[in-house]
Amino acid sequence: MDSVTIPVLVDQLVSGLAIGGVYALVALGFALIFGVLRVAQFAHGEVYMLVAFLVLTALPALPLGGFSQFGLVLVLALFLGATIGLAVERVVFRPLMAAPHLAAIISAIGLSIALQYLAAFLWGAELHPFVLNWAPGNLALGPATIPAFKVVIFVTALALLAGLQLVLRRTQLGRAIRATASDPETARLMGINTIRIIAAAFAVGSAFAGAAGVLVAALYGVVYSSMGIAALVKGYTATVIGGVGNLVGAVISGLLLGVFEVLLESYVSPKWSDAIIFALLIGVLVLRPQGLLGRAIPQRL
Amino acid sequence: MRRWRATPIRPGWPFLVLAILLPLLVQDPFLHRLLAVAALEAVLAVSLNLVLGYGGLISLGHAGFYGIGAYLTALLALHLGAPFLVTLPVAALAAAITGWIFARPILHLRGHYFAMATLALGEILVLVAYNWDAVTRGPSGLPGIPRAELFGWVATTHRDNYYLGLALLVLAIVVIRRFVDSPFGLSLIATRGDDQAAASIGTDVARVRTMAFALAAFFAGAAGALYAHYITFVSVEPFQLTHTIALLAMVAVGGIATIPGPIVGAVLLTLLPEVLRGLADLRMVLYGILLMLVIWLRPQGLLGQGRLFAGWRGRPPASLVPRRVTAEASSEERQTQPSTREEAGA
Questions:
Q1: Tens digit of pLDDT for each residue in A45-56?
Q2: Three-class SS of B129-177
């Protein structure tokens, strides 16, 4: 156990915010897709994994130094994520538009299994190092020195989240997405092409998953074929804590989840931190069935 | 007047006879092993279907109950020398009680909140088994569990264990079918359609859901006991989320809310990876693709009931699209309506 000193604590908070930013990106994408389609995209973690692998493969072709490589990698990740998301929507979810809810979930699970093993087949099931040509060094923050890269990850995540909020609040597309999320039937009657909106939500949500994938790969320095499962569980957890369909809630709870996890790992027990988080999650759900930040449900049993 | 039944009666006897005769006619230990595994998977899928299909609740912690049964059996047999006839009921009851206690506070949760709570329970159970080294020996697991013994007969071969699994499966089918056809089961099905409407006509929604959840956990725990005695070793792998997800796939592929569906799904999805073994590394890729393909062609599952409209021929009829959305979102809409009214009033 680390002793609680200010520099260590600051370092851990930053680590927590960095990984929390990644969770927030995953959760936001998941929540966005869920919002318009009302179906849990259980292959969301595989989009994240696949983009990380594709970027890893493309890295040698991007021999840029420093920040420009990071920027290019991020743009590439967003683009790849959006492309995969569009394909997933078109191939897996659109055909099941009228099918029972569970059918879409199982189909997503099938996709998740297929992609996970495909990645293991193509790249191998072992850990692959993921190293960028960019080491931004350390930042002095009062008494603490913190790795600047973690701050960059956190800031990148926040910037993407803020960008999405801007799109959702200020543009015609965003308005259409929000309308579809709140009532698909009425949205359609108002002339919104909801099928196209669902595709757009998939593109944006999966782009975020892709960005989260490369950020986490750069943060931990590794990529592996089963990395999507943990991301999905964390993203799903953050979505539910935040209140399903509540995008801001998903972001806040993703960040909280990251910070909480790092603090529990350092000060309580690295072995038991996940179990404690899940136990707290059950507690939260029992006390606040609508999620920590969700809207109150007026009727209960 | 014919009594209305929730489950259409289909004669299961020919299949049971076939299930009994098959391993006697085909003397192949490899097939026997697959059948033994498939029987246990079928027990798990049938019991999960009670919660998922008839109760309409997505449970993502079912493998955790399987784990409770297996670990408890291992500990009882290894430390106390408890015989099979003790470990089996104790494992089943312990899983059922855990399910009962856990279900009570979370039953008012809806949709994904319920799924998340059960996922959290399953993960906690796995993490406890993985980290509580003093009792579970953590990642190394518990070896040396004695074989199941019934009045002097010891289940040593794969075939013996298959018959034990089959017996449990028959028991699970009979009990779950009776439960589904009982007033409790009909109430459970009513709560699936609309829990508030069911409550308004006097259904104790929390009670029937708790019973269904505990009953499903009971059979999962019993299957865990058989597993521990069969494999003679337990570690956390079979009790993880991935197994629960495989069980969900079995129920969905076979046909949700039917009695034979989960069994067919369990047998198919257990055999499938073996059939695909020739493909080596691409085996699981094809498994995932086939899973998607089955759902694509028959969204309600192979034996599932309900209208078959092929949504895969391009855009579904507009009138059909909102049906699924409405069915899924109806409870959420009901929740949000009053708050919208509040906003309008404010």
A1: 999 999 999 999
A2: HHHCHHHHCHHHCEECCCCCEECCEECCCHHHHHHHHHHHHHHHHHHHH
- The rounded distance, in Å, linking the Cα atoms of A200 and A81 is 12
- pTM equals 0.83
Q: Is residue B320 part of a domain?
A: no
At B234, which helix (H) or strand (E)?
strand B233-234
Give the other-Cβ count within 10 Å of B24's Cβ.
8
How many angstroms separate the CA atoms of A225 and A223, rounded? 7
Pick from B119, B285, B309: which is nearest to A118 by CB?
B285
Answer yes or no: is B110 within a domain: yes
How many domains does chain B contain in total?
A: 1
Q: Residue B337 falls within a domain, yes or no?
A: no
CB B187 within 8 A of CB B211: no
Beta bridge partners of A129: A222
DSSP conformation letters of B237-294 = GGGSHHHHHHHHHHHHHH-TT-SHHHHHHHHHHHHHHHHGGGGGGGHHHHHHHHHHHH
In this structure, what token pair is assigned to residue A276? 């404690």
CB contact under 8 A, B311 and A96: yes
Query: How many angstroms separate the CA atoms of A100 and B198, rounded?
Result: 22
d(C-alpha B223, C-alpha B210), whole Å: 20
- Rounded (to 5) percent helix, strand, coil in chain B: 75, 0, 25
Residue to substitute from A105, A113, A192, A246, interface B, most B β-carbons within 10 A: A113
pLDDT tens sequence across B231-241:
888 888 888 88
DSSP code of A95?
G
Residue A56 host element (H or E)? helix A44-58
Q: Which residues of A touch B110 (CB under 8 A)?
A: 289, 297
| B56 torsion bin: left (phi>0), alpha (psi -120 to 50), beta (else) | left
Residues B26-54 pLDDT 10s: 888 888 888 999 999 999 999 999 998 88
Count Cβ atoms below 10 Å from residue A12 Cβ, excluding itself.
20
User: Is the C-alpha dihedral spanning B159, B165, B171, B176 positive or negative?
Assistant: negative
The answer, for B193 touching chain A at a CB cutoff of 8 Å, is: no
Give CA–CA dist B123/B245, Å, rounded. Answer: 13
Interchain CB distance below 8 Å, A301 and B242: no
Which of B8, B224, B194, B23 is CA-nearest to residue B129? Answer: B224
- The phi, psi pair for A221, rounded to 5°, reads 80, 10
Give the span between the Cα atoms of B252 and B52, in whole angstroms: 10
Residue A8 has pLDDT above 60, yes or no: yes
pLDDT value at B319 more than 60: no
Domains present along chain A, CATH in parentheses: 19-287 (1.10.3470)
* CA nearest to A267, candidates A6, A12, A7: A12
Q: Which two tokens stand for residue A277?
A: 């988080």
Question: In whole angstroms, how large is the CA radius of gyration of chain A?
Answer: 19
Residue B113: inside a domain: yes
